[in-house]
C-alpha cells in the first residue's frame, strides 16, 4: 500500500513537472510570437514613415501607440521623418505622442540638411519648419549629437547645416528671423562656435559658411555676433 502511495506521488510530481514544462514552452512561444509581431510592426512603421504613408502609419499607431517612442539604436520614427524632411509625418507622430526631444534631440539633428547633398529652397524650408515645430513642442538644442564621438552639439550641427554656402544660408537666416527664432544654448554646447566663425572668413568663401546666417544664429543662440568668436 505504501509502495502504491509513493508511486502515485512520483507520478503526480512528474505530471506537475511536465505540465510546468509545457506551460513554460507555451510562455516562450507566446513571447516569441509577441516579439515577432512587435518587430513586424516596427518594420512596417518605418516603411510607412519612409514612404510618407500617413494612413498606414495611423493604422499601426492605433494598434501599437507606444511605437512612436521606440528607440532602435540610432533609429526613431521621428528621426526618420525628420531626416526625410517630411513635415506632415513629423506633425502626425508628435500629435500621436512622439516625444519631440526623443533620444537626446536626435530628430532635431536629423532635420539638419547635410553639406554633401543638393537641396532646393523648398527642401530647406520644410526642414526649417520641422526644426521650429520640434523646438516649439519641447525639443532642446542643448544636447550632443547622436554620434557622440563627433564632439559636435545639436545647435552647432544646426548652424553648420543651414548656414552652409550650398544650402541657401541667407534664406535660412531670413526664414528663422521672420519666425522669431531665439534659443538659449548653454556654453558647453557652444565650444565649436570659434571654429564655425573661422569658416565664415573670406578664404573659405567658396566652401565655407554664410557669414550673415552664422551671425544671426550666433546672436539667436548666444547673444553674441560672429565677430566676437574670431580668434585673434
Oligomer: single chain
Indicate the structural class: mainly alpha
The overall strand count is 0
Mind telling me the C-alpha Rg? 26 Å
Compute the number of helices: 10
Short descriptors:
single chain; 232 residues; mainly alpha; 60% helix; 10 helices; elongated
How would you sum up this structure, described in words?
This protein is mostly helical and 232 residues long. The protein has a domain at 100-232. Helix content is 60%, strand content 0%. The chain is built from ten helices and no strands. The chain has helices at 2-51, 54-63, 77-84, 87-95, 102-111, 121-136, 154-162, 169-178, 193-198, 211-222. The termini are far apart. Residues 1-35 have low confidence and may be disordered. It comes from Halomonas eurihalina. This is Ankyrin repeat domain-containing protein. Keywords: ANK repeat, Signal.
